Every structure is written in C-alpha cells, then in structure tokens.
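Internal tracking record. Fields below are filled automatically when a chain is submitted to the structure queue. Please do not edit lines marked as system-generated. If the sequence contains nonstandard residues, flag them in the REMARKS field before resubmitting.
Queue: standard
Priority: normal
Entity type: single polypeptide chain
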Amino acid sequence: MDTTTTTTTMTTAMTSTAYLAQSAFPMFWLLVAAVGALIRTRHSPSRRATLETWQRWWAIGALGCGSLWMTISFVTIPDTMATAIGFGRTPFEFEIAFANLGLAVMGWRAASPSASARERITIGLGAGMFLWGAVIGHVFQWFAHGDHAPGNTGGVLVYDTLIPAVMIILAWRSQRASAVERAAVAEPAAAPALG
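SYSTEM-GENERATED OUTPUT FOLLOWS
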C-alpha cells in the first residue's frame, strides 16, 4: 500500500468517525437522562416514584440540558451549527437559539416536583410542536435536497422525535397511575359497613 492510499484511507476513516460523532452527539442527552433515571430508580419504593424520577430526569437531562446546549451552540458558534445542519449562515441561528432557550426553560419547569402530569403533557406537546416540525424540515431537506449533513440526519432525528414523545408518554402513565391509586383509596371508603 503506498503512502497516498494510506493517507486517503486514514482521512476517510477520520472523516467517517467525525461524521458519526457529530451525527450521534444529540443522543448524548437522551443517554444522560436514561442513565440518570436508571441509577436513581434502582431502589425505588413504588411505580409512582419511578415514574416521577423518570419524568424529572427526562425533563432536565434530555429537554432542559439538551436545549440549553443547543442555545449556547447556536449563539456562540453559529457558523459551525449552520454547517453541521447543511446550510449557509443566516439569521435563523439566533432565532433557533432562543427557541431552544424556551424549550430549556420548559424542561426545567417540567422537572419541578410541583409540576403536575397535565402540565408535563402540555410541555411535551409544546416541545413537540417545535421539535417534530424540525424533524419534518430535516427529512424534507434530506430527501428533497440530499442534505446528509450530520446535523440534519441521524441522531438529531431520534432526539427531536423522542424528547417530546417520551415526556408525554411518561406524564400520561403517571396521570393514569395516580387515577388508579385514587380510585383504589376511594373504593374501601365507599364500601358499606357490614354488621
């Protein structure tokens, strides 16, 4: 193997590795949330406590921190972020930064112990409107314009799809578990006394 072939092979491998790392990076925030929740729920006293922990970790780790990272990235390195998505620099980076800041604030609110399941469902739906719209835009750019940039395909599609979906599902399950628990407590109280 000559030097040119070796250099080309190494450059291709580094380029592929860099592409994979950039494409997969959004998944880091999902991993943070899942690992954190799994560790915290190892000895959870109840299903309800487990659901609460998962909701809080998902809200702060995945939505809150992931969106804050996007905010900081779009404000501090807008050229890099635009290139990662496959676009040239436009004013949209600033707007996307502050849309993500709004998502981060909603994530932190959803992580609050006083947040209700209904509020978390609403936050998940609000995040979904932005993130699922972004998924549609990414997929359109992918198929209509062949945009295979690491910030347009791969991990970002999974991240944008799962963040709101998991948040809504966890909150809905928590809401149902609370309703079943309330019904079980109310049932013995409603039973007539024998005797």
